[in-house]
Amino acid sequence: MIIMNIGKFLRQRVDILVMAQTHAPVKVKMNMFSIICTLAFIFLIFASACFVLIRSYDYQMTRADNQLIKAKLALIAEELARGRRYLELTRNTDLQMRQMLGMDGGKNVNKPKVFEEEKQKTFDFAGIFKKDVGEIDETAYKGYLEDIEKAAKAQLASFQEIAWFYANKKNSSDFTPSIRPSNGRLTSGYGYRLNPFGQEDTKFHQGLDFADKPDSPIVAAANGVVRQTGWASGFGQAVLIDHGFGYSTLYAHVTDIRVKAGDSVKRGDKIATMGTTGRSTGVHLHYEVWKDGKPVNPRNYFK
């Protein structure tokens, strides 16, 4: 019954009289179904037009926001580039200060070769932000920022060394390696020895080996600045301390490193524990003393 009533309603004819001032009236005959379809079509067109206008407005606003973000990032890039240039100038100042104080020049004079030099990264920081925001490589600029941070920490450690050298130029005893880095027994000396890995040849051993229980404490042999920590080729986890006055010490095959680059340490401070990281035949500490950029016999520096 309801369906029949609805069908009758939709079939009803409606006369629409259109009256114009200059023409005779026009009579349009339509049924209710046609009127409803026409109104629905008009509403659909209106809704579509509103949707397009809103999307266009959102696009223009997003585009404007992106342009503003790119402008801000460009300013940040310019500041970072300027900071990197100032960092390069501090390196030149570092060298000049070392020359005036009679120190060994160059930040790597006392660095054993097991710590490979990091190549300076070239990165067009300003150019990367000329791209659309969605195309920016996040890992690329994060690597650049980490490189700046590492360089700044290394420079800070160098300036600390210079300050200590100046303050203690007349009394360098506190900065000369003079104690055992471990209480373990001495198992291998400085000089030529048979290859411990079973090969029938000899190899020059640049340091001393101390054996003890796992996690036995390892201490700094003198006051100084931690230059570098982490993995060293063939030596596993290692700590490098620069003591100034041409001295540095290397502690290798360690675990549980307690210090980081830039830290200041005093003679006897615990810096790590004994382990077997890297190429090792067992739990032990490999200890080296460097003087003026060359390895020397560490046995001469403690009783």
Summarize the SSE layout with pairings.
Elements: H1 2-11, E1 13-18, E2 26-31, H2 32-101, H3 125-128, H4 138-167, E3 185-188, E4 191-194, E5 202-205, E6 208-211, E7 217-219, E8 224-232, E9 236-244, E10 247-252, E11 254-255, E12 264-265, E13 270-274, E14 284-291, E15 294-296
Antiparallel strand pairs: 1-2, 3-6, 4-5, 6-14, 7-13, 8-9, 8-12, 9-10, 10-14, 11-13, 14-15
Describe the 3D structure.
This protein is an alpha+beta fold. 38% of the residues lie in helices and 25% in strands. The chain is built from 4 helices and 15 strands. Strands 3, 6, 8, 9, 10, 12, 14 and 15 form an 8-stranded antiparallel β-sheet that branches. Helix 2 runs parallel beside helix 4 (138-167). The longest helix has 70 residues, at 32-101. The termini are far apart. 21% of the residues are buried. Residues 106-110 and 116-120 have low confidence and may be disordered.
